[in-house]
Amino acid sequence: MEEEEKTTYFAKNRTKLVNERTLLSYLRTALAFFILGAFLVKIVPTVLFITLGIISIVFGVALLIYGLKRFFYIKKLINKS
Q: Residues 33-44: pLDDT tens digits?
């Protein structure tokens, strides 16, 4: 393997790993919002906290969907190059 091919190969692998790490960050943050929302809805039964809990759950799900879409979009771009 030539030096330039090695560099390109390793750069592509690093980019794939960074993309996976970013996906895991989105998943971790989405899970945190989901757990916070479930806690607020279940443990603190007031209208304000139930509303905040539902908003937190919806935001967590939206963040999860966005993270997955972004992951697959970047993965497609990496595989094209």
A: 999 999 999 999
